[in-house]
Amino acid sequence: MTPLIKLENICYQYPAATEPAIRDINLSLGQGRTGIIGPNGGGKTTLFHLIVGLLKPTEGRLLFQGREVSCKKDLYQLRKEVGFLFQNSDDQLFSPTVLEDVAFGPLNLGAGPEEAREVAQNTLEGLGLYGFEERITHRLSGGEKKLVALATILAMKPKILLLDEPTNNLDPRTQDRLVEILNGLAQSQLIISHDLDFLDSVTEELYTVEEGRINLCPAGHIHEHRHIHQAGNQPHRHEKSPLPNG
Ligand SMILES: Nc1ncnc2c1ncn2[C@@H]1O[C@H](COP(=O)(O)OP(=O)(O)OP(=O)(O)O)[C@@H](O)[C@H]1O
C-alpha cells in the first residue's frame, strides 16, 4: 500500500549551519502511532518541519500519496491532511475566542460559517471542552490552550497528526486526559516527546532521532533510555513484544 507520506533519503542543512541537521532519513508515515525521542538539538523539530513542507529538503524527496511534493498545489494537498500541533500553543492560537480559533481551519478549507461553527462545536465537545466557545483564547491556562490547539487541528479532519512535545506544561490530570484523547483518535500520529511513560501509553513503536539520524528503537535500547530518563520505573511495554532492529 502506498504510504500517505514518504521521506526518501531526506537531508537538511540550515543555511548558516556548518553541519546538516537531518541526515539521510527514510520514513513512511500514515499508519498507527509512532513516538520519537532524542536529545536536545537531535533534529526532531526540523524533521517535523520537513514533513509538513515548512522546510524544503536540501537533498532527497518528500512524497505525498506516492507523488513528489514539488509545487505549491502539492504542498496545499499535503498540509490539508497533516495536523501539526506546535510545541508552543501560543504559536497556534491567534483568534480572540476559542470558537473563532477552532472554526478558522474549516472556514479556510471552504466550509460555510454555519458548518464551520458546527464542526468547531462538535470538535470542542469531543475533547470535553464544554462551554469553551466564547472563552478568550489568550486567557486560557497552558493545559486548556493545548487542548484547544488540538481542537483547531482536529476540526480540519487531518489524516495524520504531528504532535511536538504535547505534554509540555501539562499537569498529571490533563496529561491523563490527553492520553485518553489520543488513544481514542482514529488518525495516525507521530509524537515527539521526552516523556517515555507518556509515549509508552500512546504509541506502538518508538524511534530515536539523534545527530540528524533516525533509528527504530529496539527493546533493549528502550530500556536504556528508560534508565537514563526515569531510573526506577517499570519495564517498557515494548519489551514484551520486541521490535525488529532499526
Ligand atoms: N533556524 C535554524 N538555523 C540554524 N540552525 C538551526 C535552526 N533551527 C535549528 N537549528 C539547529 O538544528 C539542529 C536540530 O535542531 P532541532 O530543533 O530540530 O532539534 P530537536 O531535536 O527538536 O531539539 P529539542 O529537543 O531541543 O527541541 C540543532 O543543532 C539546532 O541548533
TrEMBL record:
Sequence ranges assigned to domain ABC transporter in this UniProt record: 5-236
SMART domains, per database record: AAA (SM00382)
PROSITE patterns associated with the record: ABC_TRANSPORTER_1, ABC_TRANSPORTER_2
Keyword ATP-binding included in the entry's annotation: yes
Keyword GTP-binding: no
A cellular-component GO term for this protein: ATP-binding cassette (ABC) transporter complex
Pfam families, sorted: ABC_tran
GO molecular function: ATP binding; ATP hydrolysis activity; ATPase-coupled transmembrane transporter activity
Keywords: ATP-binding, Nucleotide-binding, Transport
PANTHER family per the UniProt record, alphabetical: ENERGY-COUPLING FACTOR TRANSPORTER ATP-BINDING PROTEIN ECFA1 (PTHR43553:SF24), HEAVY METAL TRANSPORTER (PTHR43553)
Family: Belongs to the ABC transporter superfamily.
Name of the protein described by the UniProt record: Probable ABC transporter, ATP-binding protein
Organism: Desulfotalea psychrophila (strain LSv54 / DSM 12343)
Phylogenetic placement of the source organism: Bacteria, Pseudomonadati, Thermodesulfobacteriota, Desulfobulbia, Desulfobulbales
